[in-house]
Amino acid sequence: MSARKATGSKRKKKKQWRKLTLAEKKKLFKGLYGEIEVWSKGKLVMKDGKLIGEEGQEWWKEWLSKPIRKEQPIGGEYD
């Protein structure tokens, strides 16, 4: 047996990454664009009834297709 104490590893945990789900992306997008209510035929409609402009639509589609990484700590907290 080794003479090391069984106090656990002192090494920092590696940060775990995972892709965001579609729901998480929509939630994040809501935070950026304000309240979005209608999701039909890939078009975004603001809560006040305005349609997000073409530029916004394109950005949204492009953003949805990108793999976005999110920190996902697995067990325990670290700084």
Write structural notes for this entry:
With 79 residues, the protein is α+β, with helices and mostly antiparallel strands. It has a domain at 23-69. It is 30% helix and 19% strand. The protein contains two helices and four strands; from the N terminus they run E-H-E-E-H-E. The protein has helices spanning 22-33, 54-65, and strands spanning 17-19, 36-40, 43-46, 69-71. Strands 1-4 form a two-stranded antiparallel ribbon. It has a two-stranded antiparallel sheet with strand order 2-3. The radius of gyration is 21 Å and the shape is rod-shaped. The model has no long low-confidence stretch (mean pLDDT 59).
User: Number of helix segments?
Assistant: 2
Please state how the strands of the largest beta sheet are arranged side by side. Answer: 1-4
User: Mind telling me the C-alpha Rg?
Assistant: 21 Å
| Biggest sheet character | 2 strands, antiparallel
Sketch the topology as an H/E string, one letter per element: EHEEHE
Low-pLDDT stretches:
none
In one word, what is the shape?
rod-shaped
The structure class reads alpha+beta
The helix content, as a percent range, equals 25-40%
User: How far apart are the first and last residues' alpha carbons, in Å?
Assistant: 33 Å
Strand proportion, as a percent range, falls in: 15-25%
Overall residue-averaged pLDDT value: 59
Number-wise, the strands total 4
